[in-house]
Every structure is written in structure tokens, then in C-alpha cells.
Amino acid sequence: LDYYAYGRDERSTRDVDPVAVFAHEGSWYVRGWCHQAAGHRLFRVDRVVEVTLLDETFDAGRLAGRRAPGGVFAAGPDDPRVTIDVAPSARWVVDTYPVEDVRTTEEGRLRVRLAVTATPWLERLLLRLGRDARVVEADDPSHREAGRRAAERILARYGSG
Residue 61 and residue 135: Cα distance in Å, rounded? Predict the structure, then answer.
């Protein structure tokens, strides 16, 4: 597969043994054994740039013993976590993304903890939230300023005028 990974904002070519094709919330996905990652991975069909059918075959029984994770997203234990405070009007974050913890602060904001598998994904989320969110804790120190850095890059594209 020539595949565009939205979360990492990059293209890669991967050899994949497809295991399942399914729809989830309006998008189609292929779950398969990725040889480069040596594990099950999920590929969104509309992000596949090109498919090349190889002459090789694979043993589906071999893959059956390697249980694929359920759902569309499963955070790994080594994925960094970030905690953000969001305004009540941004509650959609809790309903849209798999969060690990949600609490209400004394100020009435939501304190949300979630896994970050790719910095570009976090940057887009923080840009979308704008003033309705602020990072209060991050396993990866670079994630604390991810939104600000992304906004500066975008503003720089427009020049100083």
C-alpha cells in the first residue's frame, strides 16, 4: 500500500496482509498484518493512494493466531499522554476521541487525558480548539507547546502582513 498517514502527515509504502475490511462511522478501513511494523495495523481506505497486488501469498491461519485489536484506535502503553483543559463548549472532544480520563475542574472546564500517537494530530486538535483548550500536562515536553508552534508555522506562511 502507498498510504497517507493523516496523524503523522506522511506517506509510506507498506506490505500488508489484509485480514478484514469494515465500515466504522462512515469510513471504510482495512485491518491487516503490516510487515514493516511487524504487527496489526489499521488503514483507512480513503487514505490509500495506490495498491499494488504482489505475487506473494500469506497464510491466513498464521494471522488468525495473532489477534487484531478491536475498534478503530487502540493506544499503546508507550504512547505519550497529554492532559488538556477544555471549555464546556468543546465537550465534543470527549465524544469524538478515545479519552482515558475526564474530570470537571473547579472553574467548570473539562480536564481530559488522552493518548497522542503523533504530534501532527495533537497540533491539529489544539488548533481546532483554539482558545477553548490549554495543555496542562504532557508526558512529552514538546507537546506542551504543540498548538502554539503549529499556529506560528501557519501564520508564518502568510507573512508579516
Answer: 45
DSSP label at 117?
A: S
Name residue, grid cell 496489526.
40
pLDDT band at residue 132 under the 50/70/90 scheme: very high
* Across 65-88, average pLDDT: 75
User: How many helices and strands (H and E) does the chain possess?
Assistant: 4, 10
**Positive or negative CA dihedral for 82, 87, 90, 94?**
positive
Cα distances (angstroms) measured from residue 52 to each of 13, 16, 56, 65, 139: 10, 10, 11, 26, 39
Query: Residue 85's beta-bridge partner residues?
Result: 111, 134
**pLDDT grade for 67, boundaries at 50, 70 and 90:** very low
